[in-house]
Write the structure tokens for this entry.
Amino acid sequence: MIDAGLIVTLYILVPLVTALCVTAVTTRALIPFLKRVKTTQTIHEDVPDSHHRKGGTPTMGGIAIIAGVACGGAVAMAMVRFSANMAVILAITAVFGLIGFLDDYTKVVKRRNLGLTAKQKILLQFLVALILALYYVYIAEMGTTILVPFLWKTVDIGLWMIPYIVFIVVSMVNSVNLTDGLDGLAGGVTAVLSLFYPVIMVLALNLGLNLITGTSTAASVMDGIVDSLFFASLAGACIGFLIYNRHPAKIFMGDTGSLALGGGIAAAAILMRMELFLPIIGLVFVAEALSDIIQVASYKLRNGKRVFKMAPLHHHFELSGWPEKRVVITFVSVTLVLCAASVVVMLLQTRV
């Protein structure tokens, strides 16, 4: 008789390895192609001087990440069972990747370094997030309650669920986008965060929590497992991309990748009903976004005075004398510690 733990391990490893291989192979093929068609990054003026040497590095590598995630997700559903939620998560990831692609295309082809306008990007992000919210409430019929981590209590927020989901998605997409400013940073943090979710799904099942429907049917439990495997695919894709994106990067993911990552993370966490873990294990993303908001607010309200040497936060540490690799390693390590601490707490709860 095959051990259940071995089966779960295979469920996680197969889509992870599939996504890793597909992304690594695709990225390797993309690098010379993107150079040939001159889709190279123009470095914005408002960055540390050390970044200007990165000009000419090919961007839009997020295409490979999306390909890897799609293949990993397809393999996961082939192994376990088809999941409508997984299909929606993959679609949301691809659509946000398309928005990022349009932004990158505008930058590269039209040579407008800022890409799409802020209004255009926010409007598109809002529309996709709204579609996800309506799916969650009215099609998937997952209710209007939110699950509080560690306490495992639910709070019914009624129709506030729709703006709640929209806020999470748009915030996550832009937080990951802001974090993608150093070689390997967004990919490294996302890889660690993504490995956390299949683990907590297993632990949640041990706690007797069904995060998908609130009932303990075998079908709904399997759906929850399948949906968590999106994160296994995402982790594999990020690891595969990091082979070429680690410092010094041979390719950037661009908004094609960062928006896809943010959208996928948010959609999957929401449909697993584990979105409130994001501010905990995704503290790096939160800090990056808050640093940017604080910097802008301080500049406007305090007559040009700044709180940080430069925002987002990773640039502040760079200008404080930290080498780029040290910043990346530190931020990824913080994410790893937060994930490990959350797992330990849940392990302790399974023994209570």
Residues 4-279 form one domain.
